C-alpha cells in the first residue's frame, strides 16, 4: 500500500486530496498544526478512530515552521509521496504578516526537502510543491505558461518564488523526484471564506435571505482563471506518477473578472442585479461600485455590493490567464467542471448554510459568524 503525507491537510486542497488518495487505496497521513479550536471541519468525514487497527487516515501534529516536527513525522511515516500544500495562503494577509509568510511558505518547503535528504529518502520519496500563478504577478506574457517569466507582486508570491526554485534546485542537485504544480486559482464550496469567490457566494446567499445587508469588496476588475479544486488535486497526484519530474501549469484557459463572478452568483440565486448606471427597478437590487454614493439612483433598489478600499492591495495582480497545454498533452489532464458549474455548486452549498442560519435565528439563537 502506497503512503502519502499531506501538509495542509485541513485546508481546501488538503481535504480534497486526502479523499482522492484514500479512494486510490493509499494510506494517507496528514500534518495539522495545533489550534485552540477544532479546525478539522473539512476532513471530519474522513476521520477514523485511532483505535481502529486498519485505519488508513492518520493525523500528526506538526508545523511548517518547526523542522523537528517535520523530520520526526517523515522519519516515522517514510512516505512514498509528500504533497506540500500547507501555507499562509492569503495574498492580502501576506502584506500584514510578511515574515511569517516567508517562514512558512518559503522556508517550509526547504525544511521538508532537507528532511527528505537528512533521512536519506531522496530516491524513495517524491515531493510535490504547491506553486502558484501568483508567481506571474505583473504578467509578462498572455496567457501564462511554464516558460513565462515570473514577477511576484506580494510577500506571499515572493515566498512562493523561493519555494518554487528550491524545489527545482533539489531536483537538479540531488536527483530527487520533486516538482512544482503552478496552479491557477481553484475554488469550491469548502474554499476559505475570505477568498473573493467564497466571500461572494456566501454573502449573496445571506443577503438573499435577509441575514446580511451588504457585501464589501475590493478590486472588482481583477481577472482570474478560476477552476474547481476537485479537478486540480487529481493533477497534483498525476504529476507524481510520471517517469520524470517536471513542472506544470494547471489552469482552465478561461478568464473572468470579480464583477463577472458576482453576476454569475447573483444569476444563480435568481437575484435581479444591476450595476450603477444601468438603472434599478423596484424589485431590483442595486450593485453599486462606490459606498460614498449611497443607496443608488433615486433611492430605488438597494445597495448590496459596494467597494471598500480596505480590500485593495498595495500591489495588485490585475490579470491572470493560464495555458494548460503541457498538462493536457503530457498528463492527459483536462478540467471537468466548468465555471458555471463551479459557481452553481458554491452558491447551492452557501444557500443551504444560510438557510440553516436563518432557522437558528428564527428560534432565537445566534448563528455563527466570522469577522475579517
Ligand atoms: P488553505 O488556506 O485552504 O489551506 C492551507 C493549509 O495550510 C491549512 O491546512 C492550514 O492549516 C495549513 N497551514 C498554514 N500554515 C501552516 C503552518 N505553518 N504549518 C502547518 N500547516 C499550516 O489553502 P488551499 O488549500 O487553497 O491551497 C493549498 C496550497 O496551494 C497552498 O500552499 C496555497 O498557497 C497553494 N495554492 C492555492 C491555490 C488556490 O487557488 N487555492 C492556487 C495556487 C496555489 P489551518 O487549517 O490550521 O489554517
Ligand atoms: P488570490 O485570491 O489573491 O488570487 O490568491 P483572492 O480570492 O483573495 O483574490 C482574487 C482577486 O479578487 C480581488 N478582490 C478581493 N479579494 C479578496 N480576498 N477579498 C475581497 O474583498 C476582494 N475584492 C476584490 C483581489 O484583489 C484579487 O485580485 C488565491 C490564493 O488561493 C493563493 O493562495 C493562490 O496562490 C492564488 O489564488 C492562485
Automatic annotation (TrEMBL):
<dbReference type="Pfam" id="PF16363">
    <property type="entry name" value="GDP_Man_Dehyd"/>
</dbReference>
<dbReference type="InterPro" id="IPR016040">
    <property type="entry name" value="NAD(P)-bd_dom"/>
</dbReference>
<feature type="domain" description="NAD(P)-binding">
    <location>
        <begin position="5"/>
        <end position="346"/>
    </location>
</feature>
<dbReference type="GO" id="GO:0008446">
    <property type="term" value="F:GDP-mannose 4,6-dehydratase activity"/>
</dbReference>
<dbReference type="InterPro" id="IPR036291">
    <property type="entry name" value="NAD(P)-bd_dom_sf"/>
</dbReference>
<dbReference type="InterPro" id="IPR006368">
    <property type="entry name" value="GDP_Man_deHydtase"/>
</dbReference>
<keyword id="KW-0521">NADP</keyword>
<protein>
    <recommendedName>
        <fullName>GDP-mannose 4,6-dehydratase</fullName>
        <ecNumber>4.2.1.47</ecNumber>
    </recommendedName>
</protein>
<keyword id="KW-0456">Lyase</keyword>
<comment type="similarity">
    <text>Belongs to the NAD(P)-dependent epimerase/dehydratase family. GDP-mannose 4,6-dehydratase subfamily.</text>
</comment>
<comment type="function">
    <text>Catalyzes the conversion of GDP-D-mannose to GDP-4-dehydro-6-deoxy-D-mannose.</text>
</comment>
